Amino acid sequence: MIDLNTLPERLLLGPGPSNAHPRVLDALSRPLLGHLDPLFIELLDEVKQGLRNVFGTTNAFTLPISATGSAGMEACMVNLLEPGDNILVGVNGVFGGRMCEVASRAGAKVHRVDAAFGEPLDIDAMVTAIRATRPQLTAFVHAETSTGVLQRVPEIAAAAHEVGSLVVLDCVTSVAGVAVELDEWGIDAAYSGTQKCLSCPPSLSPVSFSDRALERVRERATPVQSWYLDVSLLAGYYEGAKRAYHHTAPISSIYGLSEGLQLVEEEGLAAREARHRKAAAALIDGVAEFGFTPLVAAEHRLPMLTSLQLPETILSSGEAELRGALLNKHNIEVGAGLGSLAGKIWRVGLMGENARMTSVDRLVGALREELS
Fold it and tell me: Looking at the whole model, is its pTM more than 0.70?
C-alpha cells in the first residue's frame, strides 16, 4: 500500500492538473460544514459571484458543478439538446471531438467543421456551415488543450445568433488564464475546470448558462437526459432564498475554489494573463536550444499550454523515455501529444500557480542535464 506521506512533490507541467496554490491546499483542510449549513450557503454564493467575474458574465446561473470539466461539457449538451436537434461543432482537437461524441449520445444530429490539429477553426467555414445547417446549438473550444490553440470567438457566436442558435463554449483551460467575456461575446453556456488556471485540485466544473439557455431548457419537450446534471433541478439547490437538497456538494473542494478565486481577485485578471504570457514566452525561448519549436503560430498560441514539436534527436531516441526521466529523476511532469499528435509533440502547461519563471528554469535545467 502506498504511504501518502511519502508521495513526491511533483512539478506538474502537463495539460492538467496543475499544482494547487498553498493557500488552496490549506483551505481544503478547513473543518467541514453541512451542505445546507447557512454558512456554507453563504460561501457558495460568494463562489458563484467569483465565477461570474472570471467568466465575464452577469448570468445568475453560474455555479460549480460537483464533478470535473467533462461533466460541465455534458451538462451543456444534455440540457440544451433534445433527440433530433442539430448541433454544429468546430473540431480542431481532441476536445472538439469529445463534444461531438457527447452530443451524439444525447441523440443530436452532429455536423462538424474540422480544422487541422494545431490550427484555429476557420471563421468563414464556421459561419458558412452555421448558415447552411441552422443548428439549434453551435459549440466549439476556446482553448484547445490537446493542441495549444486559442480560438477567436465573437464572429462565430454572432453568426450563430443570426440563425437562432445557442452557443456553447469550452473554457476549461482558458478561465483565469486569459480573458473570457461570455456576455460580450454572446455565449449562452460555458464550462471550465478548477485544476488548471484556478490552481485548485480537480473535482469541480464551473458552468454558466444565460437566461436564453435556461429558457430553452424550460421549453424542452423531453426530460433532460441526466438527472444529476439537470439545471432545473440544480437551481433548487444553488439559487433562491430557500435551498432544496439535490446532492451533497463537495464541501472541501468548494473551500479550495473559494480561495483560488480570491487569489485571482487579488492578482487581477489582466496581471494574471500577463504572467501566463511572460512564462510561455520564456519557455519557448528556453527550450529552443534543444531543438523544440512551437506547433502553433504566435497569433493563435495559448499562453498557458504550449505545444512543442519534438526535434529529430528526441524522436529517434524515444520521447517517452525522456519524459520518464523528467518525471522519475527530476519530479517534473510534462504531457504527451494526443490523437494525431501522439508521439510528435509535448504539451507543456504553465497554468495558474505554475506560470512562473521558476517553473521554466527548473524544466530547462532538467532538460539540459538529460540532453547534455
Answer: yes
